[in-house]
Amino acid sequence: MIPFLDIKAINKPYEEAFREKMDLFLEKGWYILGDEVKAFEEEFAVYCGSKYCVGVGNGLDAITLTFKAYIEMGNLQIGDEIIVPANTYIASILGIIHAGLIPVLVEPDANTFNINPKLIEAKITAKTKGIMVVHLYGQLADMDAVMNIAYKYNLLIVEDAAQAHGLSFKGSHTRTFSFYPGKNLGALGDAGAVVTNDEKLAQTIKSLSNYGSQQKYYNGYLGFNSRLDELQAAFLRVKLPYLNLENEKRKAVAKRYLSEIKNEKITLPVCSADHVFHLFVIRTENREALQKYLADNGIQTQIHYPVAPHKQEAMKAFHHLALPVTEKIHQEVLSLPMSSALTEEELNHIIKVVNSYKL
Ligand SMILES: *Cc1c(COP(=O)(O)O)cnc(C)c1O
């Protein structure tokens, strides 16, 4: 069976370096917010072309704490509305809700899967204060259009970049990242970060992530415990220098899929040149049949995602929304194996099998 994602194989080349980091870690005996977190924050800020990076516990907290910090700073108020794509992983929306804000869902462009900027203005009310963009599957959303709208209505922009490490971003907005093991830059456990050029925001997030304190045992905010783990930071520092190379390998896989998959039952994604291919997502009408056919032929696939956020059990207050493009996408998408560890042989097999699907 060709696995959908073999994280162990992706991490294999780094194992020696991980062991060295682990030895150093044990030798030092400093477990929380040490030199590794500080160094990773500096290195990831530089990598992203941002002034500041704050490590946090995971990608959801990166989103939640960013919005909480804007509330503490007075830029946002509880109950403000934030525009967010309806077609996303639920974490983008949960972060807004957990901060006490109201997510306003906007349909995607069916070709790119990303938010359709033409539909944003109709959703703007007097309470709208921000737009959260998601670069879904690793493809940049239509930032020129989003920035024009944000400028016109004086809205904050926050980017959920959890699937877009290494993307050439546009503008200098605050960006939230997840280093969940399966992401393009993945830790060996949970980890996340926020990058920003706003010093006050960075300080506020840092404080909120550490019990609202900037000085030990003095608490300026009602904070949380969501710190980037010292050991995960050490592991991430091992992998960061190779992120561009990892992304190039993903792009090479995608290039073969895009040029060699030819099957009228399958719609290939519309991809820009700088796509970092966290996922390679095709569409097909009878998804269950294709998934079963691929599995029968030794190819594991996954669905990102099977149920739209507004249709989830947890999101009852949103069940009444009619979001037909989002719902159709969730019925038709299927993710083919995508990783830097796929071999030529495996790729040849996947392409051959996909092309011979007839059902
Ligand atoms: C993975 C992901 C998150 C959440 O990250 P965690 O580290 O799992 O909390 C948020 N948004 C998107 C788009 C993601 O893919």
TrEMBL record:
The active site is at K183 (proton acceptor). Keywords: Aminotransferase, Pyridoxal phosphate, Transferase. One of its GO terms (molecular function) is pyridoxal phosphate binding. The keyword Transferase applies. GO terms for biological process: polysaccharide biosynthetic process. It comes from the Bacteria. InterPro entries: DegT/StrS_aminotransferase, PyrdxlP-dep_Trfase, PyrdxlP-dep_Trfase_major, PyrdxlP-dep_Trfase_small. The keyword Transferase applies. The modification N6-(pyridoxal phosphate)lysine is found at K183. Belongs to the DegT/DnrJ/EryC1 family. This is Aminotransferase.
